[in-house]
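tl;dr need the bound structure. longer version: we got a ligand (4AD) that a collaborator sent over and nobodys looked at where it sits. i said id run it. heres the input, straight from their email, havent touched it
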Amino acid sequence: MKHTKVKDLLNSAPGLHEVKAKGWVRTFRNNQFIALNDGSTINNIQCVVDFANTPEETLKRITTGAAVCVVGTLAESQGAGQKVEIQVSKIEILGDSDPEKFPMQPKKHSLEFLRENAHLRIRTNAFGAIMRVRSTLAFAVHQYFQEKGFFYVNTPIITGSDAEGAGEMFKVTALPFDGTPRTEEGKVNYKEDFFGKETNLTVSGQLEGETYAMALGQIYTFGPTFRAENSNTSRHLAEFWMIEPEVAFNNLADNMDLAEDFIKYVIKYTVDKCGDDLKFLEQRLIEEEKSKPQADRSEMALLEKLSFVMDNNFKRVSYTEAIDILKNSKPNKNKKFQYPVDDWGVDLQSEHERFLVEKHFKCPVILFDYPANIKAFYMRLNEDGKTVRAMDILFPGIGEIVGGSQREERYDVLLEKMKALGIDEKELYWYLDTRRFGSAVHSGFGLGFERLVLFVTGMTNIRDVIPFPRTPQNAEF
Ligand code: 4AD
Ligand code: MG
């Protein structure tokens, strides 16, 4: 007999026929009640062991973390909290778990301790819930774009270009460190390297994505991206997953509409599919926030916050308006910002973004038309000659979740910009070609997948929403 998933058993009506379940013991009470979980749902199934007729040896091996197989009948449960339970007639221990040594004890562990045990933390309720939500969100991303006629494009992970021009790249090389081949000038001779040129891990698939949008019309990427920025924050990873749609003939307003519609869709899809997990995570957050002062607690519970985002328009505000608001804000006047806002043109820090979203507008905000010199080279210059058609979406508790723009489609203007910034036009000839042959207005954005998972799960550290986080000084597992 094949075993049935716990999720399906919990949704079944009690009956006299035999059922089989396999999973890991969460707890074993009174030598009688096993709470069994197989990862299919946050809910455990209670398995009632006939301890009088079970060998003492076997009972001893039913410990937290052990893998077991139970056979029995699905009965109406007498206890509170569940409709059905398994009246066990046969139990087999598949894999023992020494209770003295298994780190995931049935008690509250700190998130830091769980990070150190990332290979086992997935056995806890919270991480099971987070990773099921993550999986559902990923599926929703594909479903949204596929329904809308976008094509999924796999852009290269190893590339020779620095899409963001920020220089925060991990080098990819097969050259030896000792006895590295040198040119006559003494520089590393990349001609002798694997690809015959300098390469790195991609920071974004955008530039390659644009070439595909200029042929397939509407495309999206969804893949890993890498940044060697040394920011040890709760919002940054060195390896993260990014979703990058790119659409021919879309202008900046179309781009904002797409991003807003997309985010609302994937949240709704996940709220509909992951009710039990989200209810658990909502409760977890309430418990966690009990230790914080009232003023630092969330104004809304998790599900209410998600509904709020789905039901309300994101506020669209130009950079220039935002600077005015910030300049005249209380924290700026009282010198509470670490970076005071005085002149137009300054880059916004996360303290400013959070003020706008959390204190001033109290809803998601789309900031657009940023100063050209604080944004990437490929953004469409506005008629004013000093701002570009960029947009960032800022979320409460997260800060920037999306960065995007209308792209500079004019060959001459783009070339001029690249020259001014010292970007090698020979290296990016293929990118410039899209502007030489059938150029057109087009736009796209990048959404940091882990920041979305953070928002939906109510977690506060990005290390807790990706299975094995990569951050400065940490590449364990
Ligand atoms: O704003 P970014 O750098 O934009 C780009 O890479 C563009 N090429 C996207 C595009 O237009 N196609 O990054 C996009 C998003 C950010 O808004 C943020 O959500 C996320 O990627 N992100 C990170 N997430 C986790 N860790 C990091 N170190 C991140 N850096 C950016
Ligand atoms: Mg950005």
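gonna send this back to them w/ a short note. Residues 72 and 89 are 5 Å apart (CA to CA).
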